[in-house]
Amino acid sequence: MTDKKTNAKAASKKPASGKVTKPLRRASAAKSGQKSQKPDDKSADSCKSKLFGRLKKNEEQGAYTSVKNLKSKRAFLGKASGASSRGGVEQDKNRFRLIWGIALLILVALIGRAYYIQVANTQFYQDKGNELITSVRTQKSYRGMITDRNDLPLAISAPLATVSFSPHDYAREYYELKRIIITNPESPQLLARMQKRLDNMDLTTLAAAANISVNELKRATAIDPTIDVTDEVAVKAALPSGAGSHYLPLLNKVTPEIAQSISSLGFPGVNEKNFFQRYYPQPQPNSQLLGFMGQNTNDPEGGYEGRAGIERQYEKELAGDDGKVLVLKDAKQNSLKEIKQVEPEVPGKDVTLTIDSRLQYLLYKELEKAGRLQKARWSTGMVVDVQTGEVLALSTWPSFNSNNLNEMTGENQRNRALLDVFEPGSVMKPFTVAAALDSGKYTATTLIDTNPGSIRVRGYTIRDHDNLGRITMATLLQKSSNVASTKIALSLPADGITNMQKQFGFGSKTPLQFPGEGSGLVVTPKEKETSRRATVSYGYGIQVTLAQIAQAYSALAAGGVMHPLTLTKNDKAPPSKRIMAHEQAMAIVQMMESVTEDAGTAKGAAIDGYRVAGKTGTSRRINPKGGYYTDQYRNVFAGMAPASNPKLVAVMLIEDPRGQIYAGLTVAPVFHNVMKEALRLYNVPLDKPLKTEAQ
Predict the structure, then answer these.
(1) Residue where a domain stops, chosen among 353, 370, 386
(2) 387 CB neighbour count, 10 Å cutoff
(3) In a 10 Å sphere around its CB, with 0-12 CB exposed, 13-18 middle and 19+ buried, how is residue 630 labelled?
C-alpha cells in the first residue's frame, strides 16, 4: 500500500512530454492545500527551479512557442522564418544585401572624393602642395640708363648686394647638429658628416671674411655648450631672441663680387640680397632735371620707382618688367635652387636726352657763381637749339646731390625753369613789337612819340628811365621803353598783344610734358581795361615759365617758325608750325642786336666775333600781402647767337639779386659765358670781325 502511494507521487512529479502552449508555472501552496516538511520543501524548490529555468530558456530561443505567437513574429526586413527566427535563408540573404549596399555606397563616396581631388579640383591641391615646397621669387629687371646726347651716362643702375647674418638660425642649426651627433652614436658615417658641418660653422671664419669682431658674433649667437640638446624646450629657450636676433648686417651695399666672398662660405644664417641702386655721375647739375628714385608703397618687396623729373616721366620705359622665378625651398624657407622661369624679365629701355652734359655742367657752374655773387634766392637757365627745339642744357641753382637724398629740400629740388611761373617784365617787349608789325599799322621805321617820358593810364603813371622822345621800334627794344610799348598796345585791339603772346606759346604748357610743369596765365583784357592792356605789353599782369620764354625766342630766331621744345631723342618731335612772317621775325632779331651794343641795356652779353641779339627784363617781385616789393627784383635775359643766322638761344634768370638790380649787370654776363662756350663746342662760325688790341 505504501509502495503504491509512493509511485503515484513520483508519477505526479514527472514532467509531461510533448508540446505545451504555456510555460509551466509553480502551483501555489495555498491552492493545493498541501503542507510539506522543510527538508522536502528545499528539494522540491530546487527541482522546480531547474525545470522553470529550462522552460524559460527554450521560450527565449523559440524552441517552445505557439502557432499564434509564431504568426505574430516577423523576421527583420523579411517574412516569417518559421519555427526558428535564427539562421533562416531569407533573413541571411537580406542581411547580405544590406551589408553590400552599405559597402557599395562607401565605395562610391570614396571614388567620388578621389575624382574631386585628383581630377575636378586637381589644380587647387597642386597649388597647395607647391606652396609648401616652392615659392615664386621676383626677379628685378635692370632699370634703363639715362644718357646725354653723346651717350654719356647721366643715370645708371649699379648692381649691389647686402649680406646679413641671423644668429637665431645659426644657433638653431648648431644645436640640431649637436643633437644628431649625440643621438646617433651607432652611425659613424652620419657622425662624420655632421661633425664636418659643425667644424665649418666656426665663427672665426665668418668674422674674418666680414671684417667684424668674432666676439660680437659670439655674443649675438649666445651658444650654450652645457645645454641638453635633446631637450626641445631647453633648446628653444636658449635660441637668441629680440632685436638683432634675426638680422645682423655684415656688408651693406657692396658689389656682388665682395658679397660673394661671404655667401660662398655656405655659412648657416648668412643671407644675401641683391638689388640695383641708382647712381648719378653728375648729380648737382642734373638733379632737378633727372629727378630721383623713391620707394614704391605698392610693391610688397619694397621696390623703387621714379618720383620726379625724367625718372618719373619715363618710369614705364626705364623700369621694364620684373621677372618671376619658381624656387624650391627647404623646411626653413631657404631657397635651394631655381626650378623654372615663370615670367621672363624684360629689361628697361635707355632714355637718351637732348642734353649735352658738357654744356650742362658749364651752365650750372655759371648759375652758381652768379647766384652766390649776387646773394640771390636762386638762379636758373636754359640753352636751346634753334633749328630743332632740342634743349641742350637746363639747370637750376641751388641743387642737391642726387646720390644722397638727405641733402634734398623742398626748395632745392624744384626745376625752376619749368615749374615756377612769374611776371617776366621787359623780355616780353619783342612780342609787343611782333604784334605791332603783324597788325600792319607799324613798320620797322615807324616813329613813336614817348614825350615827356611818361604816360597816364586810368590813374596810373607809366614811366621810362629817361625821356626818349620820338623813337623807332629798335630803340624801343634797345632802351626798353614802357611808354612806347603802352602806346602800341592801346592803338591795337584789346586782344592784339595777348593773341600774339599766345601764338608764341605763352599761357600753355610746352610739349616737354615735364611732371609738374607750369602752364602760366595769359588773360585777354577787355576793351575798357586800358591799364591791363598797357601792362601786358611790357610783361606785367601775365605769368610765364622760363621754358616758354626760351621756346618763344627760339621761334623768333628760327624766322617765325615754332619748333616745339624736346628733351629726349627717343620721342618723335611734334610738327613745327609758322606763326609769323620770316621777314618780320628777322627784323625783330636785328632790332634786338642793339640791346647788346654799347648803348643798349645788356652790353655785358656781347661776344667777341659774334653778333648777339637779346632782351633784358627787370621786374619787381610780387608781395604776397599785396602789390610789389620796392627792394626785390627778378632779372631775366634772353638772347641768341649768331644774330645773322641764329643757332642757339639761351635764357637766364636770377631771383632777388642783392648785389645789383638790373639784368644787364647780373644775368647778361652769365649769358655771355655760357653762350661763348656753347658756340665753341658746336663749332659755330664767326659772323663778326674779332676785336684787335688797337681797337
Answers:
(1) 353
(2) 16
(3) exposed
Looking at the structure, tell me whether residues 155 and 287 fall in a common domain. Answer: yes
312: confidence class by pLDDT, cuts 50, 70, 90: very high
User: What is the C-alpha separation between 394 and 309, in angstroms, rounded?
Assistant: 12
Identify whether 26 is part of a domain.
no
| Residue 642, domain member (yes or no) | yes
Kindly indicate the confidence band of residue 436, based on its pLDDT and cuts at 50, 70 and 90: very high
Q: Which of 91, 92, 73, 93 is nearest to 83 (CA)?
A: 73
Average pLDDT over residues 350-354: 95
Give the rounded distance of the alpha carbon of 311 from its chain centre.
Answer: 12
Q: How confident is the model at residue 12 (pLDDT cuts 50, 70, 90)?
A: very low
Q: Residue 600: is it exposed, middle or buried by C-beta count within 10 angstroms (0-12/13-18/19+)?
A: buried
Assess whether 344 and 452 both reside in one domain.
no
Give pTM, 2 decimals: 0.76
The pLDDT assigned to 585 comes to 96
E strand or H helix that includes residue 498 = helix 496-503
Vertex 598: Cα angle to 597 and 604 (nearest 5) = 75
User: Tell me: the pLDDT tens digits for 605-626?
Assistant: 999 999 999 999 999 999 999 8
- Annotated catalytic residues are 426
Mean pLDDT on 456-483: 93
Q: Which residues on adjacent β-strands are paired with residue 158?
A: 277
Q: CATH code at 312?
A: 3.90.1310.10
Cell of 524: 585777354
Q: Are residues 379 and 518 in the same domain?
A: yes
- 329 and 476 inside one domain: no
Please tell me whether residues 362 and 322 are part of one structural domain.
Answer: no
**What residues have CB less than 8 Å from 301, skipping those under 6 apart?**
138
Domain with 295, as residue range(s), is 135-159+276-353
- Least confident range from 357-371, 419-433, 452-466: namely 452-466
Count: domains in the chain = 2
566 and 465 belong to one structural domain: yes
In a domain, 468, yes or no: yes
d(CA 330, CA 524): 73
